[in-house]
Design a protein that fits this description.
The chain contains 11 helices and 10 strands. By secondary structure, the chain is an alpha+beta fold. Strands 2-3-4-5-1-8-10-9 form an 8-stranded antiparallel sheet. The structure holds adenosine-5'-diphosphate and arginine.
Length: about 350
């Protein structure tokens, strides 16, 4: 007999948006619904129920999840993105519109810049609800499309299955490859059939990379050393349009690009720098006042849920839905200019 699906009780100190918005009433309303891909509320909330330290706690199994379980997803999207259920998303991937001269031409503060977008195939379940056969099909179509790129985007697709452990460890340590076994993804069903269907494509210089079948079916990434944010954005937008010639992605006027985690909806873009701010780091209140002002998020040096090391932080845009891609990068750029200015002032006082 299947286990009865009961209303989850969250401890008082649980801060996830799931615990905030999943009222008993909403639970009763949604608990027996399922999407055409058989994705249920139980599956949507599993990650936040298992991982009580989640910030969000929910994942979608398909685009339909966002409407069928809208009573739960809508307020979460509203709070994270300040975006209401009647708003329309807007996109702008025109790099000419970005005003971002290198804020650190001497390379004293910015170690590297990285911009990524998430993409999922149109008419395909998202990772939490995808079957092994569908996932392997995504890998096949993605690797074929990627292997046909040329110029500075030319590269090779490397499946995780059979990858030498030393090589994968080095790719992870060097910030190029995703980590295996993330517990948030595990509970969301995103690690099923691991490592089948997963892989990474990259060019020789590792300035253009694509993750296949991690949290989203594609994570398209442009990165390089230093602070030339515009060059990184230009390479990314060119790559996106080349890939879009071969693959249709899931998109709608309300939610923009559809992703498995609601935080990534819209642009699905995270534009970040690794930046050294040892003096500002001594005053985290001031640091956070600046990051809040520019809608930025602070992460550690090994990505989400990691710690900072040697005063180096990962600073990125927090807003992704209801703002354009150009605005996401501009948020990060403007904030970084301000952070460097304050760090310089603090240096002078030493
Ligand atoms: P995502 O960016 O896909 O949301 P993570 O935060 O886990 O996921 O970051 C993925 C990897 O990218 C990590 O190894 C992280 O250190 C690396 N990374 C992020 N931003 C930069 C950057 N500006 N320079 C170099 N590596 C970066
Ligand atoms: N599910 C995790 C949480 O709720 C991560 C949320 C945002 N990050 C992400 N990679 N989607 O904390």
């Amino acid at each position: 007999m299947s286990k009865k699906f009961l209303y989850p009780i969250f401890p008082k100190d649980c801060k996830s948006l799931l615990s905030k918005y999943l009222t008993k009433e909403i639970f009763e309303h949604l608990k027996d619904l399922k999407t055409t891909n058989n994705f249920t509320l139980n599956m949507a909330i599993a990650s936040g129920v298992d991982n009580l330290d989640s910030g969000i706690g929910v994942y979608a199994g398909d685009v339909e999840s966002y409407s069928i379980f809208g009573k739960l997803f809508d307020p979460i999207i509203q709070e994270y993105h300040s975006f209401s259920k009647n708003d329309k998303h807007k996109t702008n991937l025109n790099s000419d519109d970005l005003k971002a001269a290198n804020p650190d031409p001497l390379g004293k503060y910015i170690l590297s810049t990285r911009i990524r977008v998430g993409r999922n195939f149109a008419n395909m379940p998202l990772g939490p609800a995808i079957s092994k056969e569908q996932r392997d099909g995504v890998e096949k179509r993605a690797s074929e499309a990627l292997n046909s790129l040329d110029g500075n985007l030319k590269g090779t697709y490397y499946p995780i299955s059979g990858m030498n452990e030393e090589i994968s460890k080095k790719l992870i340590a060097d910030h190029f490859l995703f980590k295996a076994g993330d517990r948030f993804l595990e509970s969301a069903g995103l690690n099923r059939d691991w490592p089948s269907g997963r892989g990474i494509f990259h060019n020789d210089e590792k300035t253009f990379l694509v993750w296949v079948n991690e949290e989203d079916q594609l994570r398209i990434i442009s990165m390089q050393s230093g602070g030339d944010i515009k060059e990184v954005f230009e390479r990314l937008t060119k790559a996106i349009s080349k890939i879009e010639e071969k693959i249709d992605f899931s998109y709608n006027d309300h939610l923009g690009y559809i992703t498995s985690c609601p935080t990534n909806l819209g642009t699905a873009m995270r534009a970040s720098v690794h930046i050294k701010l040892p003096n500002l780091a001594l005053d985290m209140k001031r640091f956070e006042e600046i990051t809040d002002k520019y809608y930025l998020q602070i992460r550690g040096i090994h990505g989400e849920h990691s710690q900072s090391e040697d005063g180096i932080y990962d600073i990125s845009n927090k807003r992704r839905l209801g703002v354009t891609e150009v605005q996401c990068v501009q948020d990060m750029y403007d904030g970084v200019v301000e952070l460097i200015k304050i760090e310089k002032e603090l240096e002078k006082k030493l």
